[in-house]
């Protein structure tokens, strides 16, 4: 927008006045193209909202405000509150440490939350009228999944209860004053380490209940059984309902869980459901009559969508409300009148919210969640239902991380925050443009999005980056992505897509890769590249490709199939399926879900689907990038491919991110390092690259 200035000039001016006037006129006509582009330094200025919670009276929304601390290189979380008319936006609890999981008491007079301000994460409760805070727990292990009882008197949560580690041999007595090595660690579990958590201590998650005013937590469950953190209460506040796999051989049934209730007075555990497959996310209706939960059939497929099921607690009858709805239900929340529920689900690369009544009639809202997965454009977001039928949710755009927005019955949604207007309102951010094309394999329509460089000129020819999502059962969409924004700011056209196997298009589409991945994803992706080249602004001689996790698998698969790309970056990949299913953190799940038999019974199936089998075809300069603490796609997978490329004399580098898990972006500097190293590698092989450009990329 150009501002109009009405100025009266005097006949004479000093030089300084003239210069000041010129500067004023120049600032008045600034346009978007005059703004700086988004840069790696801006990563530390990003903020976003998560976990918004509407108060019981519908007057306020509490949410977690996430910012980046440049001094500690960590995301910092505080709890803020805003009135539902958009006013009175203020911090509720903040400072040193992190604050999360804000949960209103049923009466709305208190707010429970988790904080690590005193070391270990503990449960706190704030009395809002008095402004007083009480530390409710002092536990050696951190609580999670906090939920108030309907009467407001107690809070349930889960936490790890350690047990003595397994022992085999005994050691002789150590002489007084002697310094010996740490004792040997004995492992007897199938899953003994998890990505982002490291090697697991001995013990299991258990359900606890603690008085809301403080006291001794009561342990409601025991035994060596996996328990979900999603806990709910019976309507009379006399029992807690949870999801667990309580089979003696639970570790051999990773796709199984049922619902149970634990009575407060007696501790007796009663099984509620008993069906094949996992049941989870239990939520009791406000009137106490119905229990809603997700139910997934165990079809032993790579992907099985979750259905919304309700159980009449008076008759013990259960029925699915989404039998004919070909989307997987995730979050579930009851309306205040107990006559309907709000659900979220992924659809065409977006997380949508819909209302469904007890007959199964579904009404889709205009609400689209997003903005909480800041690295790549994955589907994300959350919502909550509160008083007066108001619904708070994370509102994201392709050029903004999440803000808090509010849906009010009969009114247009209201955006309550603007956390990044001061940053991204002053940068040239790019928007995602939808594109579709038929796959060369079978003409199946594939959806993708294009992000163009700032100042894009359709008459020019640009280098292109094909960026591939992981999962493989996940989805990209027109969502915010720091990585894609930085790639575009560096002058690349960015194409990201949802090839077959992606979620949000129904179960059949997701299972197109069942027992076949990576399969025909190659055809879907290359057809998308060709469709974009046909637009006329992509240089077919300047193609680059990258992806992480499942996207790393497909990147390595692509360079084994074609030499069309000038350079590739394979991030945190699976290279050899046989070694992967025996080293990954969820090893048994992968081996029994993605394959028909273990590798020693059907090695050929593992080998023919492994990118390593195509190493003899690779000529593309290929960089490897993985976190050193990645236990989902272990570093050994990266090392195999790197050494194979070295054996063959292919241009390669291995970039190791110290301390990073599978979620490399967890620390802001790691996100920057990932992007900068990818761009530096690509710049090395661009036709128009120069020493100056290489230096700028690094």
For this entry, give a set of tags:
alpha+beta; single chain; 12 helices; 4 domains; Neuraminidase; globular; 16% helix; four-stranded antiparallel sheet; 38 strands; disordered N terminus; 698 residues; eight-stranded mixed sheet
Q: Could you characterize what this model shows?
A:
The chain is an alpha+beta fold and 698 residues long. It folds into four domains: 49-115 and 386-423, no CATH class; 136-163 and 191-272, Neuraminidase; 277-369; 432-575 and 610-697, Alpha/Beta hydrolase fold, catalytic domain (Rossmann fold, 3-Layer(aba) Sandwich). Helix content is 16%, strand content 33%. The protein has twelve helices and 38 strands. The strands form nine sheets. It has an eight-stranded mixed β-sheet, sandwiched between helices. A four-stranded antiparallel β-sheet has the order 1-2-3-4, with no helix packed on it. A hairpin with a 4-residue loop joins β7 (122-127) and β8. The longest helix has 18 residues, at 668-685. It is globular and about 70 Å long. The protein starts with 14 loop residues before the first helix and ends with a helix.
